[in-house]
Amino acid sequence: MAATATVMAIGSTLLSAYGTYQQGAYQKGMGEYQAKVAERDAQSTLEAGASQEASFRKKARAQRGSNIVNIAKSGVAMKGSPLLVMTEIARETEDEAYNIRRNAQVTADNYRSQAGAYRLAGSYAYKQGLIGAGATLMQGGSNAYKQGKIDKVW
What we know:
Layout: H1 2-74, H2 81-146, H3 149-153
């Protein structure tokens, strides 16, 4: 009877240790999965930002061309005030295009940072799972030894 209880205690300890290890391994896998999703989000953000920037520049060029045609139709020379206005519009266009690109880059950098955090958390959880499994094995073995049951089983 005592041998059966000892075998059950050892089996319980082994199962508990394995469960602790598996939990850590699962968390590591989830961290890696979440990191990959965040990296894909970063790449998608950069691609969307580049597309938005290109679209903005295309619209700005069309508007600039339309403005030049309208100024030419009015008979005003492209010097002085009209030239200054067009120069200011071009500067503002570049500023806005830069902001579109910069915002996409900042968001992508945030996603990449999050990916690193997910990986770190997964790695930490895995190590904790290994340590927890080892601690469970040691505690279970110690308890069984203290009760003097291991010697009777072997």
